[in-house]
């Protein structure tokens, strides 16, 4: 690239001889009018005329055209320029460099963000120099001695980014961004075995070649969000809470707890269905349903000091040390009792995406936590010496056995009957992961924002679950959702295609479809409610208790019938009959309740239950007018999101917490 200027020395061959002609000709090639050019050329007592941005970044082709005009006094100065041939491609990670005037007037290429900024001194070479004697007109004297100082090239940097996976990600992000128009969106694909970042992207972004989209008013464009942005992670944080509980030996997936509400002093912590809960359920089901109460009770078993120690081991509250500028450290909000409880399910405490990925690498790879890194190697072209980045284990927060058990439990979030992550299932591959719906504090008031769209929706998943080759983490802040769209749906439109394409591209073969065994139902009549629950669970079936009695008197299906693993067994007690929470149940399962109680149900629609006229826990008898509304699978998630929104408003009325204390409504999906 070239920069142009005009010398105005008087009485020598380097002066501008015809200003009118020069201005008219030059206006055809640079973005400046003839009048403005002429105005500059007519300045008096000026040694050299500069044209600012209009005279910079002149291509070779344009330079040749200008030279054909034979304009006296014209000088071209060669300048360095960085090219970004891929356009919007890991833009904030790579960053960009541009010409900057140093104090001596010399132009220098300076990195402004990302790799360009943090490795500016490595990438920058040294200009060569040629000195010789000239006459006063600038002509080289005959037989003048020339002194040459050779130029020194800057080093070459090889990134860990996989071009194919990055392309998958960029194309998908562009499509989803246009559809949902979120305030911001981040996504990173990492190899958990090494810590290598295979793809990293965000929206908003810009084209470093044209600078389209890059301006001072574009919020987020000037930040490398996965590195620099600290946010509340929501229920994705439960990945680390679960791992800590398993490692502490306080997590029994088949043990029961009472869902709904957990109190910290006088402050109630609610499950995300308005504190109704799902009755007495197993901790595994609590993980599947993303129960805040489940994790609050696990924290109580662990102890808050012990959990804080795990948070530190996982690297929260401190920078990872990734090779990029302005990394956020986040903050563990852990002073008051309620803050300790909300931290266990991702509220109040802030994190960076790099911290989350670093911590997740321990769960994906035998408990060994890896430092995320983006520079694979640096080569000095002058010496051919190459320095390769080595994998760095940053800690072992959990055991290999704990890592394996955590993945097994997280697989149920995606594939389990009650899993909140069903949207993220990848056909042919087992995915372990966790969903998140976190609140956003208003920067002005400090209070949490309200409204269907005002959340950060997220999912972190790893696959294949038994031995993960890839971790992918996607967050989406404030997408513009229609009445039938959900935040989870929007996030899945990024995660699913990129994860699937990446696994196939890496030649990771799909696993054989899991074969579910048939189970012969035993008799549970006469057993206590607790005994029956344990017996049904032991057969890998799902127990549903109807009534408030102590003993089981009837069951469906009957003894000896065959069922597939995971199906529901309806157990009727000897007390008053009560209504179960049938949300997301199939019509067939709801009919079992009608059959065993003898109370007729009226159904509207097809698919899965989204609404029931009698609330869970209501006494059920022949006078009950039970109406059930069903929706097809693609509509269920939209309903649940709207239902949670109503529940959140109810919770706010029940709590006496100042919202600006970082607690809000204590709900995360």
Automatic annotation (TrEMBL):
The keyword Transferase does not apply. Residues 515-575, 576-633 form the PASTA domain. Residues 633-669 are annotated as: Disordered. Keywords: Membrane. Belongs to the transpeptidase family. SUPFAM superfamilies: beta-lactamase/transpeptidase-like, Penicillin binding protein dimerisation domain, Penicillin-binding protein 2x (pbp-2x), c-terminal domain. The keyword Kinase does not apply. This is Penicillin-binding protein 2B (PBP-2B). Residues 642-656 have a biased composition (Basic and acidic residues). PANTHER family: PENICILLIN-BINDING PROTEIN 2B, PEPTIDOGLYCAN D,D-TRANSPEPTIDASE. The lineage of its organism: Bacteria, Bacillati, Bacillota, Bacilli, Bacillales. It comes from the Bacteria. It is found in: Membrane. InterPro entries: Beta-lactam/transpept (IPR050515), Beta-lactam/transpept-like (IPR012338), PASTA_dom (IPR005543), PBP_dimer (IPR005311), PBP_dimer_sf (IPR036138), PCN-bd_Tpept (IPR001460).
